[in-house]
Amino acid sequence: MPVDHSEAREKMGGQLSMALRASWLPKITNGWFFRAESFFSVARYLDKAARDAGQAGPDFLSHSHGEGFLRFFDERCQRQGIFIFDEPESALSPARQIEFLKLLRRMDESRICQVIMATHAPLLMAYPNARLLRLGKYGLEPTTVEQTDHYRVMREFCDDPRGFVEATLAE
C-alpha cells in the first residue's frame, strides 16, 4: 500500500521556511521577470507613456519583433539588478540569439547584475561559464549543453537536415 508523506513534507517545509530569510548582498532593488509573451504589452505601454509625456519614446513596436526585443533588453538591462528571462529565444532568430549573447556578455562584464534564464535554445545555453540546471524527475540537476535533448536534436538536424526531417516526418 502506498504511503503518503505529503503531510510530513509540508510540516518540514513550513519549518524550513520559517528559518530562512531570502536576501541579496549587496542589496538589489532593481530587476524584472520577462516573458516573451508579455513583450508587446510592455512595449505598447512604454511607447504610449513616452508619447503621453511628450517625449520621443523608445519606439519598440516600429521594429520587427526580434529587433524590438533586443532594443528593449539593451535599454533595460544596463542597470544593476536581477533579470529573469523566460524563453527569450522565442522572439529571436538564431542570428538575433547571437546578438542576445553579446548583450548577456555586456551585462556579465558590468558585474552589476545577475541573469536567471529558462531556455530551450542551445545557443543561449552555451553561454560561457553558465550554470545549467535541468528540471528532472528528482528536481534540479546539473547538466551540460551537450547532455540536453535540445542540443542533441539540433546536432542531428545539422548533421543531415534533409535526412533528419524525412525521418522525423516518417515516424
TrEMBL record:
Gene3D superfamilies: P-loop containing nucleotide triphosphate hydrolases. CDD domains: ABC_ATPase. Residues 81-126 form the ATPase AAA-type core domain. It comes from the Bacteria. It is a peripheral membrane protein. Keywords: Cell membrane, Ion transport, Membrane, Transport. InterPro entries: ATPase_AAA_core (IPR003959), P-loop_NTPase (IPR027417), Siderophore_ABC-ATPase (IPR051535). Signal peptide: none annotated. It is found in: Cell membrane. PANTHER family: IRON(3+)-HYDROXAMATE IMPORT ATP-BINDING PROTEIN FHUC. This is ATPase. It comes from Bradyrhizobium japonicum.
